[in-house]
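User: Can you help me understand a structure? I only have the sequence.
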Amino acid sequence: MLTAEGARRRVVVVQPYVPGYRTSFFDLLQARLASENVDLEVLHGPAPPHQAERGDAASCACATQVPTRRLPVPGGRPLLWRRVQGRAAGADLVVLEQALHNLEAYPLLLRSAGRPGHAPRVAFWGHGRTYTKPPSRLEAVVKGALTRLGSWFFAYTEGGAAHVASRGFPRDRITVVRNSVDTAELVAARARAARPGTAEFAEATLLRKRYGLSEGRTALYLGGLDTPKRIPFLLDCADRIAAELPGFRLLVAGDGADRHLVDAAANRPGSPVVAIGHTGGAGTAPLGAVSDVMLMPGRVGLCAVDSFALGTPVVTTDWPWHAPEFEYLADGRNALVAPDDPAAYVGAVTALLRDPARLEALRTACRDDVPAYTAEGMAARFRDGLLQAMERDQRNPHAGT
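Assistant: Let's start by predicting it. Here is the structure, written out as tokens:
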């Protein structure tokens, strides 16, 4: 895409930080935009403290870390100021996180509204609504007003897009990106884990021997170990399931602030818990190969996509604070959603593990859903939305946001 003067276009995306699961998406998006004569730069800060403990911060070729100030708010979320104004000044479009605590958004929006000189348009990328906590009425109103100042909106899911549209944002300026991770390597590695003679098959065999894993009696937890994931609930239920199903084991792959709870449980004599530590990418394929289900009683997010790639269905609860990707799960088809009660959850898991035919049906649906949620598809949809947003601006450069 070229301007009337023949110059290349430029897009800046501002992120809190770049987690490892996002690097492939940005690489794919950069390549797709480059073929349209559009440059991409991702500006980000360091991983916030609650995320840094997960150990998943990364970078990519188009990413630049900028100075960031954290301003504490008593009893609330810190305000953040990222020094992005200089690098964003010459961009055609700046995509910001949809969040009230990002202070750099406000001067960028003011400049965009007035359009002095070459001030960039501002778009938002986010959940669409507050999924993971109860918002105050004032917060919801202000967030909606802020969002409507954007020239475009990139929604994680259909549900988020519908919410933004219901609050007055034009539906023809919303792109649903289907938030995902790069599963191509994981899908291939998981297939190899089922074939004798491969390294993945050998590792899966070793896992079974090392931890005494049995088919129909093994579960996997995959993700961060922190408060939203409800680790105490998970560990309590693991003990209860083991009492119902002798030989049951729970493999816990992850890291975070609650890692000590997992380690303590794993070190207890007779415990069904096995602490694996942080595992990412294709390295999770052998874990999926030896596991029957993925236990996730707390927040379901991108683990939904991992469960499809691994063919290991999620068993979760109807807890109200799941992330947007919970929308990818269909209870009884590719996942199981139990009542938010330990006894009910344990009952749902044990019943499923005792029903091989039902479990295989869920696995089949997981594998069928893999093509719908990929980093390649997400990058293609994001690129299309960016091009549409810039084309709209080029056709009507004096329009307000």
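Now, to help you interpret it: Residues 375-395 form the longest helix (21 residues). Residues 253 and 279 are 6 Å apart (CA to CA). Let me know which part you'd like to focus on.
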